[in-house]
Design a protein that fits this description.
The protein is mainly α. The chain contains nine helices and no strands.
């Protein structure tokens, strides 16, 4: 009986994430034709996030062939895709109510700085403890806006059940799913962990929740909210 070598699970996880992100991107781009005008931007932003994630996974998988993935490969994708997702949440709230432009800029700047400081700490360009704490504060600020800020108030007041239900899952993804990133940052910065591929596998699996499920939840909200919005427009 032939005994095959143990498969490269890290490379397989990059492939799984790559294929899943491509499939999700196609679905979301097709979904822009199934939704009303003001939802199109939200879905397109989610598609942009998954496209960036797919490109980052492709490049990281190629780099893994040498036996290691540089830290910057993870952060280059995150610094683009995560702010895009935060902005998708902002425009998600604007589909049902008024949210200030000031909040738009705050969320954009905070989300970029959150990733930037984590990178500085993990790459050794800044004190790891200080960088980790700053990144954590920025993440907590985003969560504060989602749970207690204007976006939460607008969505709750909308009384649109599909939107409220999807917002619940979106906040859960940003809270639980995104926790893998500061956790990984903490392990590598303070635990002296030398990633042999396990952390990359965890990040790739997190993409199924943080990018793919995130986009699917947005698309679901857009499609389920369409009938109620149409009825409201006809009554108006």
């Amino acid at each position: 009986m032939t005994v095959f070598a143990t498969p490269d699970l890290t490379a397989a996880s990059y492939s799984a994430a790559l294929f899943g992100l491509i499939a999700t991107s196609v679905l979301l781009l097709m979904g822009t034709a199934w939704t009303r005008g003001h939802w199109k931007l939200v879905i397109t932003l989610c598609a942009c996030s998954t496209i960036v994630g797919a490109i980052a996974s492709f490049e990281a998988r190629a780099a893994w062939s040498s036996g290691a993935v540089p830290i910057v490969y993870h952060y280059v994708g995150w610094v683009i895709s995560m702010p895009i997702q935060v902005l998708a949440l902002f425009f998600f709230a604007r589909t049902v109510g008024e949210v200030s432009v000031g909040l738009f800029w705050r969320l954009l700047v905070v989300s970029v700085l959150m990733i930037f400081f984590r990178y500085l700490g993990e790459a050794g360009y800044m004190n790891a403890t200080l960088a980790f704490l700053i990144g954590l504060i920025f993440w907590l600020y985003i969560l504060g806006e989602l749970f207690f800020g204007r976006m939460d108030a607008v969505i709750t007041a909308s009384l649109q059940k599909p939107v409220i239900r999807s917002y619940f899952w979106l906040r859960l993804i940003v809270t639980v799913g995104w926790a893998i990133y500061p956790l990984g940052n903490f392990i590598t910065s303070f635990g002296g962990y030398d990633d042999g591929g396990a952390l990359s596998v965890a990040y790739n699996l997190a993409d199924f929740l943080n990018r793919m499920a995130f986009g699917a939840a947005m698309l679901s909200a857009a499609m389920l909210a369409a009938p109620s919005e149409r009825s409201a427009a006809e009554q108006g």
